[in-house]
Amino acid sequence: MTISFQVLKQDDRTWARVGRLTTLLGAVETPVFMPVGTRGTVRTMTPEEVRDLGARIILSNTYHLYLRPGHELVREAGGLHRFMHWDGLILTDSGGFQVFSLAPLRKINDDGVEFRSHIDGSRHFFTPEKVVEIQRALGSDIAMVLDECAPYPCSYEEARAATDRTTGWAARARSVEGNGQVLFGIIQGSVFRDLRERSTRALVELDFPGYGIGGLSVGEPKSLMYKALEWTIPLIPADRPRYLMGVGSPECLFEAVARGVDMFDCVLPTRMARHGAVFTRNGRLVVRNAGCARDFRPLEPGCGCYACRYFSRAYIHHLLKAGEVLGIRLTTIHNLHFLFDLVARIREAVREERFDHLRSEFLASYLTP
Amino acid sequence: MTISFQVLKQDDRTWARVGRLTTLLGAVETPVFMPVGTRGTVRTMTPEEVRDLGARIILSNTYHLYLRPGHELVREAGGLHRFMHWDGLILTDSGGFQVFSLAPLRKINDDGVEFRSHIDGSRHFFTPEKVVEIQRALGSDIAMVLDECAPYPCSYEEARAATDRTTGWAARARSVEGNGQVLFGIIQGSVFRDLRERSTRALVELDFPGYGIGGLSVGEPKSLMYKALEWTIPLIPADRPRYLMGVGSPECLFEAVARGVDMFDCVLPTRMARHGAVFTRNGRLVVRNAGCARDFRPLEPGCGCYACRYFSRAYIHHLLKAGEVLGIRLTTIHNLHFLFDLVARIREAVREERFDHLRSEFLASYLTP
Fold first, then answer.
1. Residue of chain A with shortest Cα separation from B86
2. Is A76 at the interface with chain B, CB within 8 A?
3. A227 and A281 part of one domain
4. Which member of A39, A83, A310 has the closest CB to residue B322?
5. Residues forming a β-bridge with A20
6. Are A253 and A308 contacting, i.e. CB atoms less than 8 angstroms apart?
7. What is the C-alpha separation between A21 and B103, in angstroms, rounded?
8. Distance (Å, whole) CA A11 – CA B288
C-alpha cells in the first residue's frame, strides 16, 4: 500500500480527530480541505498560489478530464501532476457524481453507465474497471471507485438499488486496482440508516485504505446529513481516513469534524468567489452588492490574505462589476485562505483539547444564510 | 515641473534614443512600453505581477474610470495608485479617443464634447478643463489633454477642424493645469503633412513637458503612420519625451523607435492573450487553435517567463478551450514578458550602437500577419 494513515489525536468530547495521511509524495495533516480543480486547475489560481495558501492535496474530476482534454492526452503529458504543474497530492473522484448530475441521457445497468457528453453529445460508457483505468492514466495519488449517487429525495427502493450496485462496482474496481494506486471505496445509502450501515459494512469487508462518504450534500436537510454521518462513521475502522465528498461550508466542516470526518472537498469557495461573495467570520459578504461600492475596508478586517492586505471592498466591487478577472482572483484567494485557516485552527484546537470550544465560538458569530 | 527627461544615448544611424524620465515616484528608462490597465487593473494581473515583469509605468483610462467607478470615488479612495495598489507611475489618457470610438451619440463643439455612456446611456459633457480635473482626482502622474481624434480615412477639412480644435483645447487645458500635475499635449493632423506640422508647432509653442502623438494606428497603412512620425518628430524639441499612443506590436515598436519615439502603450498583449494568441520570435501563435492540442512544448521554447517555464501549449490550449481563467493569465504573462523583454533589448542595443542590427535581425524572423 502506498498510503498510510495515523490518528495523532482523538478528541474526547466529540469524534473529532487529527491524523496524518502519508504517501510517497509527502504527508498531509487531517482534517484537510481539498480545493477543487475540476479541469486540472483550481479556478483562477496558479499551482504556486494554491500551495502558498496551504493546500497540499487537491481534487480533480475524472469525468471532466476524460471528456476534455482526454485521459490519454494527460497520460502522454506525463500525468496530471506534470500537465498542470502541481507537486502536491491529487485525489480524483470517479466521475459517478458528474455522470448522474451533468450528463444527459444516461442509461445505467449492473455493467456500468452509458451517457452522453454535456459538451458535444458524444456517447460514452463507464464501467468500474474503466474508471480505474482512466484514473491510472491521469496518475492521481488517490482514486475513487465508480459509484451510483441516488438523487435526493428518492424512494427506499431506489436508494437500495443504487447502494447495492455501488457495492458490486466497488468489488470489481478493487479487483483491477493496479500497483501503486490507492483506491477509496464510496459509501452510499441516501438518508436510510440500514442502507448506510449495509453499504459501510460491505465496503469495509473489501478493506479499502480509505472511505468516501457519498450521496450527501445533495439537497437533504443538514440534520439528515449529520445523522447519516453518525450512522456511518462508527462502522469504519478508526485507522482509515473518512472523506465526506462535496462538503465545505464552514458550519458543515465543524459539524462533520465533530462526527469524525477527516477529508473534505468543495467547490464552494471558488464558486462563491466567481459570484462575488466571500466568507467572513460573521457569515457571507456579497461584495458585488451595491453596499460595498464605497466601502474602503478590506473584505475582512484583520485578515492576512493578499486580497485583504492590499485591496478594499470598493476596489474589488469595482472589478467584479466591470467583469475584471482580478476581482474573482481576489475573492478566490480570500475564500481559500479563510477555509485553510479555519481547518488549521480546527486541527490545532483538537490537539489542544478545545475543539468544542472553538466550534461554539465560531458558530455563535457565523451567520448562516 | 515634477518631471524631467534626459536623453542618455542617441543612435547615430537612426533617430532611436535611450532616455530617462524622472518623476517624484522614480525613474523610467525609455523607450518604454506601458501596459494598459483600462479600468484600474492590467487585465488578469496583480500589480506585483505587472511590476515583476518589468513595468514601472502603466496607462489607465480616464473615460472608463470616470464612468465607473467614478473619479470622485477614486479620489475618496486616496487616488488611483492606492485604489489599485500600484506603486509605479500612472499615465492617464484624456478620454478623447474613447469618447470618439466607444460612446454613442456624441455632439462636439468648440466648448467640448457631449456623449452618452456606453454602459448605461447617461449623458455627460467633457471639456478640456473638466478632463484635467478628472485626471487630478484620479491622481495620475502624467495626464493628457482632451483631444479630438479624426477617424481614418477622413477628408482634409475634417482633419483640419479636429486638429485645430485639439490645439485650442490644449491651450485651455494648459491654463488650468495644477501644481504637481504633469500634462502632455497631443499632436493630431491625421495623415496630412501640413496638419501634422501645424499641430506640432502650435503645441510646442505651448511648451508641454511631453508630447503624445495621437490619431495614428487607427486603420491607416503602416507606411503612412511611419511617414506621420517622420513629419512630426523632428519638430518636437529633443529634450521632450515623445509618446506614440496606442501602438505596441513588435514590428511597429522597432519602426517607431527608429523614428525617435520614447513611449508606447497598447492593449495588444492583453487583448491577444484573451483571444488565445501569443507573441513568439517567429510571429504570432494561436495557442487556442487545434494544432496546439497535443503540443507539449512551451509557448516559446527558450523563453524564461513563468508560463513557458512550467506549462505546455497543450495545457494552455486545454485551459483556453475550457474557458479557465488561468489560460488567459498565462498567455497574458507571456505576452507582457515578450514585450518588456523586447523593449529592454532595444534599449540595450541603442546603448551599444547596434540597434539597426537588432531591428534587421528581429524583423527577418518575425512574420507579421
1. A310
2. yes
3. no
4. A39
5. A6, A29
6. no
7. 59
8. 52
Write the single-letter amino acid at A360: S
Count Cβ atoms within 10 A of the Cβ of residue A120 and give its class: 0-12 exposed, 13-18 middle, 19 or more buried: exposed
| Burial annotation B301-330 (CB, 10 A radius, 16+ → b, else e) | eebebbbbebbbbbbbbbbbbbebbbbbbb
**Locus of grid cell 453518525:** A230
Instruction: Give yes or no: residues B237 and B345 share one domain.
Output: no
- Whether residues B255 and B286 fall in one domain: no
Q: If you ran DSSP here, which 8-state letter would residue A234 be given?
A: G
Q: Residues A164, A200: contact at Cβ < 8 Å?
A: no
Cell numbers describing residue A248 = 465545505
Sheet holding B107-108, edge to edge: B107-108, B113-116, B123-126
Number of compact structural domains in chain A? 2
Same domain, A170 and A282: no
Q: What is the radius of gyration, based on Cα positions, of chain B? A: 20
Pairing outcome for strands A283-286 and A277-280 = antiparallel
Residue B1: per-residue pLDDT: 53
**Same domain, yes or no, for A301 and A163?**
no
- Helix (H, G, I), strand (E, B), or coil: what is residue B52? helix
How much is the ipTM here? Answer: 0.97
Q: Which residue range(s) make up the domain with A333?
A: 268-359
What pLDDT digit, counting tens, does each position of B91-108 carry?
999 998 998 888 777 899
Q: Residues B298, B307: contact at Cβ < 8 Å?
A: yes
Cα distance between residue B14 and residue B234, in whole Å: 12
Which string of b and e fits B95-132 if b means at least 16 CB within 10 Å?
bbbbbbebbeeeebeeebbbbebeeeeeebebbbbbbb
CB A267 within 8 A of CB A37: no
Mapped onto helix, strand or coil, the DSSP state of residue A316 is: helix
Distance (Å, whole) CA B39 – CA B102? 14
- pLDDT profile of chain A (369 residues), mean per 10: 90 97 92 97 98 97 97 98 97 91 85 93 95 96 95 96 97 87 95 98 97 96 97 98 97 98 97 98 98 98 98 98 98 98 98 98 91
The pLDDT, as a whole number, for residue B25 is 85
Task: Give the least confident one: B117-126, B194-203, B352-361.
Answer: B117-126
Query: How would you classify the pairing of strands B263-266 and B242-244?
Result: parallel
Q: Which of A39, A77, A328 sits opposite B312 (nearest CB)?
A: A77
Check CB contact under 8 Å for B315 and A73.
no
Q: Do A296 and B46 touch (CB under 8 A)?
A: no
Find the residue in A nearest to B297 (Cα): A77
